[in-house]
Amino acid sequence: LKELGAKSSAFDPGEELTPYSAVTQYNNFYEFGTDKSDPYENAGSMQVDPWSVSVDGLVDRPGTYDLMDLIDFNALEERIYRLRCVEAWSMVIPWIGVPLSSVLNKIGVQSGAKYVRFETLNDRKQMPGVRWPVLDWPYVEGLRMDEAMNDLTLMAVGLYGKELPNQNGAPLRLVVPWKYGFKSIKSIVRISLTEKQPRTSWQKSAPQEYGFYSNVNPEVDHPRWSQARERRIGEFSRRKTLMFNGYGEWVADLYAGMDLAKYY
Amino acid sequence: MKVSVHHLRVWGKPLIFLLSLVPALWLVYHWYLAYGGLPHDLGFNPNETSNRFTGDWAIRFLLLSLAVTPFATVLRSPKPLLFRRMLGLYALFYAGLHVLSYIWLDMAFDWPELWADVLKRTYITVGMLAILFLLPLGVTSTKGWIKRMGAKRWQKLHKLVYLIGLLACVHFIMMRKGFQVEPLIYAGIFAALMLARLRKRRGKVRA
Fold first, then answer.
1. Which of residues 78-137 of A touch B (CB under 8 A)?
2. CA-nearest residue of chain B to A18?
3. What percent of chain A has pLDDT over 70?
4. B121, A225: Cβ pair inside 8 Å?
5. B47 to chain A: nearest residue by CA?
6. Most CB atoms within 10 A, among A17, B117, B149, B192?
7. Contact A125, B168 (CB under 8 A)
8. Which residues in chain A are contacts of B123 at CB distance < 8 A?
9. For A25-67, what is each residue's pLDDT tens digit?
10. Which A residues 42-81 touch B at CB under 8 Å?
């Protein structure tokens, strides 16, 4: 994997980083299988170079973009973020990328656009997991426009100073640190700006369990388990989960007046 | 060479006993390594690994014990029945480890939180019910209890194992995210073992 130059980190939580081995070998990427070790074992052969992303919907400059034309590799930043999985484990990861807002500004957001919809690669030949109907493929995620434009929202192309390994969503993935990990969609091949709220894969799979917002919230439990605590990978005892995963200072305003138990 | 009941008792039973213990020994050994900060095979989330590992073996032994009777029918020999109690007790043993793993590693013996979790989360309620029903079957598995209860009543009680199997399968399906195949394979095996019993019964009625 190629090394990437990046500006030093903003928003550093000052917590111990999760080891590279854990970050790259303990993953959920169901397109490569449902076991945590499956992505590491099966994703290696995915072709990520060249990579193109189709851009459509309410944008000024739709079309098919090469990765290099969508991301300014001279403006990369390192961002050390907590990652909180909906399964109640967590990590601290040094990502490399650019703010999503810079990508959206490049493609030109039209005034009617209220949401961003993302799609993951869906290729049976390269992804053994999509043979099983675990989810309604392709994997779809989405953000409200103000969430997408928030400073924290990152389009990542690397971690630990290098390009993203395939199992972590190479070559291009979203990182939304105040939401559960599954919102941070991997290996993106399509970005659409829409007026209507997109239906995400997990919403389709179990609407009573996975909402569109899926903000990290210790007070709103998953119907099948508590979200009050989490296990930081590498630690034996569990720690308390923070509201908005500790990023409330920057994102709580986005949800002012909303009932977060209803809009989970 | 014909395998006699005597051979099975003297060699077969200890062999199956030791083999069945291997997964538990593996788990304890790797926890010992992990606790000492040494390289181990429990992965990056040893607690999750323990929960799943013990649960997998509990349901495997449960299905194995349920497979004994149909197997004996196919062989037209009662010999497999020699192993049924041991396999059932191993199911209880691994189910016990499963509960211990959950109460110790996940709940850290926080009893109020544990009680709330058991009641609030349906899949845990279902799993706990399965264990609760399995317990009396383990206790009454001795010859003395068969005598005390009388064979008929004892058999009636032990039919509970069918309900336990169903609860275990439901518990497994419910704890996975999305539509996953692995728990359905176990449920399929359980359904096949139940069907084998139904067919045999219908055959009897006709005869």
1. 87, 89, 132-135
2. B44
3. 100
4. yes
5. A236
6. B117
7. no
8. 224
9. 999 999 999 999 999 999 999 999 999 999 999 999 999 999 9
10. none
Across the interface, of B45, B108, B123, the residue whose CB is closest to A26 is B45
A131-167 tens-digit pLDDT: 989 999 999 999 999 999 999 999 999 999 999 999 9
User: How many CB atoms sit inside 10 A of residue A228's CB?
Assistant: 15
Domain locations in chain B as residue ranges: 45-206
- For residue B45, list chain A residues with Cβ-Cβ distance below 8 A: 26, 36, 89, 231, 233
| Residue B204 binned pLDDT confidence (cut-offs 50, 70, 90) | low
Average pLDDT over residues B190-194: 97
E-strand stretches of chain A: 7-10, 52-57, 63-66, 77-84, 89-99, 115-120, 140-144, 154-159, 162-163, 173-175, 188-194, 229-232, 239-240
Question: Is residue B44's pLDDT more than 80?
Answer: yes
Average pLDDT, chain A: 96
- This model of the complex carries an ipTM of 0.76
CB contact under 8 A, A26 and B122: no
CB-CB under 8 Å, A36 with B44: yes
Sort strands A115-120 and A188-194 into parallel, antiparallel or unpaired. antiparallel
Q: What is the set of domains in chain A, with CATH numbers?
A: 7-251 (3.90.420.10)
Nearest CA of chain B to the CA of A41: how many Å? Answer: 14
